[in-house]
Amino acid sequence: MTTMQEPKVKLSTKVKPFIFDADQHIYEPKDMWTSRVPSKYKELAPQVVSVPPGGEAWRWEDKYYEFIGLEVGAGRSYTDISSFGHSFADTRPGCYEPRERLKDMDLDGVDKALMFPSQGMRLRNIQDPDLMLALTRAYNEGIVDWCTEGDIERMLPLFALPDVGIEHAIDEFDHWAKQGCRGFFYLGWPSGTGRPQEADDQIWARCQETGIVPCLHGGGPAGGVRGFALTASTDPTRPPHKPGDIIGPGKSTAKGQNLTWLVFSGVFEHFPALKLALVETGSGWLPFFYEQIDNVFYKNRAFEPFNKLSKPPSQYLKEQMWTTIQVDTHAIRNRHEIGVDKLMWSSDYPHSGYGSEFPNSRLFLEFQFRGVPDAELRKMIGLNMNDMLGLPNPTS
Amino acid sequence: MPETQRAIIDTYQSIVEPPDLWVKRLPSKLDARTPKVVDLPDGGEGWSLDGGSVLLPLSNFLLVEGAVGRTVPLTDSYKTMRPGCYSPEERLKDMDVDGIDTALVFPLVGQHLQNIEDPELYKACVQAYNDSVWDWCQSGGNSRLNPVAVIPMLGGDEAGAEVRRAAGKGFKAALFTGWPNGEGPGDTEDEGFWAACEDTQVVLCVNGGPATRQNAPAAAGAKQEARLIPKTPLEVTINNMSSGNGAPQLVGRMVLRGIFDKFPRLKVCFSGVGAGWLPYFLEQVDGMYYHDRFYAGFGSKMLPSEYIRRNTRFTFHLDTSAIKNLDEIGSDYLMWCSLYPMEAGDWPKSREIIDQQLQDGDRRMILVDNAAEYFGI
Asked: Residue A237: what pLDDT?
């Protein structure tokens, strides 16, 4: 059991600037799905089981094992992190209990957080559309309940947008828009194909109208092949990959492909008030990416579909996209090219990884923002998130 | 000597393989399956591999007469193609126009040979390519054209043997299109290949992510629709833009698998993928190493950035963010390339793009000295 003593010396809240963490994750409580799905899906719904080598795993569809490990790194020393072998019993309660989460946010000096899923990232792996829809709805109910039980003013739930047909995406969107959700995460294009379709415009139009922010989160495909092969093991005794393989440097430039699709298929051109969040992909690579995508545009702009754009690609992205950093000194150094109004700090709590440094987030903030003017700092660690979500800034 | 009086070494050009490149080399019994140029049903020409089981439209290669402010469509046939694409003598003239002295010449169709399923045919096509491109470059004379060899992904030993054969002919570089075992990074399967590269000091050039023989870019698209790969200019563009995304993943894998520990003199050049992403990547990959080293079983002994500094280089065409952050990257690590004859390049105005990016100081290292030293050309 990892325990942490309450620190004797509290961080002063008087001098502490407002911090809005753009990327935290629920670690789903054990009954997240089983308590919410119709009884016919009880066995197929994700549930926690003990596994032979010790520890626990989430079992999806009665056969795919997702081991408890790297998604519950919060509060562990680097030497205690493991990709499997952990269980709920030795996991920090702030991972899965909303009231405990609030305490951890206080410990770390975080005022508000956007709440992404952990296991819920796998929803897209499900091949049967009915099951996928049922589990997505259950997840969405669960995340809203969870944040409500904590403090929905401080923990902002993001719903999952299913990608198995535009009519289902619209249903889910409208339902949670009415409930007051400010954003959603998507792992595939709403229509369910490998690239954005015209039908997806119905979602982008709703986003523009409501101010709801689509969040493109790193670590999974947008579009691409469905299935558990990349993440899960069908053998409960061992993880699917060698450790050195699964952790290839995850925060990479790979989401550039999704951005390229969005820009060149005209989504930002047609929806100039659409706001997009790029999450857990890092940002230091963006100045490079902007130049490359603009070069393609300038070379091809006499031809379809490039001639439909009224601005170079980077300009849409600089105006309409917000983007996260954890530890990313290169992004901060080049912040004026990325946009001081667009960068958002994030902790990735409770996941394990470089830059997920609870309870020392503020120490890492100090290091990387050294020398940055205070007004810029305040934007990047808090005010930009309010701006993106259309929320008022704190008075003080 | 001032750089203007000296050669610029261009570290990335492509040959557009002459239509008879394979036909005139492979035995006639393979005729039906020899790579050749065919008319496509919707117009234009394409390359047919293995009797039509893979079709590569020429328009997918984004070849243009001169990309700067182009208003002409992409070339889709040898009839409309600039002769400098496929003729060595014309290539040298185009280089003279652009002020380029020496070039590394990458394969175009040759990159897609791994989509050929039959191993014997695949190997024969690879060897025929290497022999032909060597002669093509030689016929230009004066060592101005330096070919990059294709490696068969048929296991470490086969791949290593072809590296040694190519080095024996005089090749300075080879293209890495995927793990030689055909699957993934493996443990020891590819050692014969790494050893051959290290022994011969042939530079492994990487211009995209590693593919397996099953998910090679052409084959992935081919399985879906009539074995034609990307269908619209947008798809082609996105495929091209995305190919560079594989570079960070690949270098991370190579480091963490300990390949540079076992083969400390291996040379790897990330070609045409730029370097503006590198400072970001180095911070993230070193951070990951510190953070995850207790459980992850990394096979490497030093920080990832230390291997990258020691073993690898990067080439770029247009990358002002790399130049702006040169103090983080180091001018030793960069080399310039024209990308001729691709639409992303700026022929015949390469000098203008160079002048916009590079001033004094490090300019000569990036345009000449680094490439001369690293590739031995």
From this structure: 86
Closest to A203 (Cα-Cα) out of A245, A252, A233, A169: A169
Residue A366 has pLDDT above 90, yes or no: no
Residue among B177, B52, B160, B14 nearest B111 (CA): B177
CA-CA-CA-CA torsion for B24, B28, B30, B35, nearest 10 degrees? 20
Size of interface A-B (CB pairs under 8 A): 155
Task: Give the pTM.
Answer: 0.92
Q: Rounded to an integer, what distance in angstroms lies between the CA atom of residue A25 and that of residue A28? A: 9
User: Which sign does the torsion angle of CA A135, A136, A137, A141 carry?
Assistant: positive
Quote the strand ranges of chain A, DSSP E: 20-25, 47-50, 56-60, 64-67, 112-116, 155-160, 183-186, 213-217, 276-279, 321-325, 343-345
A83: chain B residues, CB-CB within 8 Å: 295-296
With the C-alpha atoms ordered B112, B317, A195, B250, is the resulting torsion angle positive or negative? positive
Taking only residues 38 to 97 of chain B, the set having a beta carbon closer than 8 angstroms to any beta carbon of chain A reads: 67-68, 70-71, 73
Angle at CA of residue B296, ends B290 and B298, nearest 5°: 80
Give the CA dihedral B114, B120, B121, B124, nearest 10 degrees: 90
Return the exposure string of B111-142: e unless at least 16 CB atoms fall within 10 Å of the residue's CB, then b. Answer: bbbbbbeeeebbbbbbbbbbebbbebbeebee
Q: For the sheet containing B334-336, what is the strand order?
A: B9-14, B102-106, B145-150, B173-175, B203-206, B268-270, B312-316, B334-336
pLDDT at A243: 53
Helix axes A286-300, A313-320, angle to 10 degrees: 140
- Report CB contact under 8 Å: B322, A288: yes
Q: Is the pLDDT of residue B375 over 70?
A: yes
Q: Give, as one character, the DSSP assignment of residue A230.
A: T
User: Residue B187: is its pLDDT beyond 60?
Assistant: yes
Inter-axis angle of helices A201-210 and A166-178, to 10 degrees?
Answer: 10
Both tokens assigned to A73: 């790194």
pLDDT at B39: 94
